[in-house]
Design brief:
This protein is α/β, with parallel strands linked by helices. The protein folds into 2 domains: 10-200 and 317-366, Rossmann fold, CATH 3.40.50; 206-313. Helix content is 29%, strand content 25%. It has an 11-stranded mixed beta sheet, sandwiched between helices.
């Protein structure tokens, strides 16, 4: 079953909102899979912000708030908005709300569901939000929400939309995880730990960062040689050329700057090269612009890091907290306390919340309300 209602838990929701506001005035709620409680988390933030008289702006990096999932056909919780909320959504969905909306501004951004508009809720109700499906359009929509009066912009990050990991869009994240990700508590905790790892990758040392930034701003990928030289690569993308890149490496090279995506193929080619040639620096860094450019899976990342590689990013948004949903559409139901505690033990640096069960933990310790 879905966590469709926030039954109580005001103290937890208020704490979560404080964590979000500490990170900035634009936050994303990202589900690590469908049905991880992302919309429940979003609704909790919207409601508590409204109770504090904070003007809220809402949009999506995909499609959210519909009665039934467009892919699975399963029922979904609606997005609930208070009177006065601003929503950036495709105009096709205006007639599918349970409340009256007033169009404030048209953005000139077009999707298959119509033009994206800024609308104001004239009364409380439920909305379906089909938002921008391209990063630049989403940045534009968030900016317009702010200019129209939103003091806090909340972006519902549809599962699989990795571009939301760009700090150009949001300043901080809440990650939603749960039984829809894995039927085993340990598996959920491990997968969530890896997701947090990728969202919070370190920055490279300053001397490398400066040169990497220059290359990426020029749209150039380059090998960082042991003597400090940057050897530019002749291709706009490394996709399909991963073995060639790996073959160009020399003993002692410091790393690789990727102007575009870092995929599984590249990490696999580098990992294979490392294993074949033991003479390499202690750390070989692959530097990307931000976490949205890391398009590799957990297995490829783990193998690359185990072989001596390190992923680094020039910029990133913060992760404020994790929320969990112990149930899944398949019928899996995990003990809420067990799930909160296991995720907290794996990710001690972040607070973990179950908004429906009214549970929270930090550093592997359950917190009292």
């Amino acid at each position: 079953m879905n966590q469709s209602d926030l039954r109580g838990g005001r103290e937890h929701a208020s704490t979560l909102l404080d964590l979000v506001l500490a990170g900035g005035n634009c936050a994303g709620v990202v589900g690590l899979a469908k049905n991880c409680g992302k919309t429940t988390t979003l609704n909790a933030l919207i409601q508590v912000a409204a109770e504090r008289n904070i003007a809220v702006g809402i949009t999506s990096g995909g499609r959210d708030g519909e009665l039934y999932d467009a892919i699975t056909g399963l029922p979904k919780p609606p997005i609930r908005v208070p009177r006065g909320a601003l929503i950036a959504l495709a105009d096709f969905t205006i007639g599918r709300t349970s409340c009256r909306l007033e169009v404030v501004q048209r953005l000139g951004v077009h999707t298959t569901a119509g033009e994206i508009v800024i609308a104001r809720a004239l009364e409380p109700g439920n909305v379906e939000v089909i938002g921008c499906n391209r990063a630049n359009d989403l940045i534009h929509a968030v900016s317009k929400l702010r200019k129209c009066g939103a003091e806090l912009a909340l972006v519902d990050g549809a599962a699989g939309r990795t571009f939301l990991a760009s700090p150009d869009i949001v300043q901080t994240f809440v990650l939603a995880t749960g039984a829809a990700l894995d039927s085993d508590v340990q598996g959920i905790a491990d997968a969530t730990r890896m997701a947090v790892h990728l969202f919070t990758l370190p920055a490279p040392p300053p001397r490398i960062a400066r040169r990497a930034e220059q290359a990426i701003e020029s749209g150039v990928s380059a090998i960082m040689r042991a003597d400090g030289r940057m050897d530019s690569l002749p291709w706009p993308t490394l996709l399909g050329r991963e073995p060639l890149v790996a073959a160009m490496l020399s003993s002692g090279d410091l790393g690789l700057v990727c102007a575009r995506a870092v995929g599984d193929g590249l990490l696999a080619a580098l990992t294979s090269r490392f294993r074949e040639h033991s003479a390499r620096p202690e750390v070989f860094r692959v530097v990307a612009a931000d976490p949205s450019r890391i398009a590799a899976g957990d297995r490829g990342v783990k193998a690359f890091e185990a072989a001596g590689g390190e992923l680094a990013v020039l910029r990133k948004a913060g992760v404020a907290a994790i929320t969990v949903n112990p149930s899944s559409p398949s019928g899996t139901m995990i003990n809420p306390s067990d799930l909160v505690m296991e995720v907290s033990k794996h990710i001690e640096e972040l607070p973990v919340f179950d908004m429906v069960a009214e549970l929270s933990a930090s550093g592997g310790v359950m917190l009292e309300t």
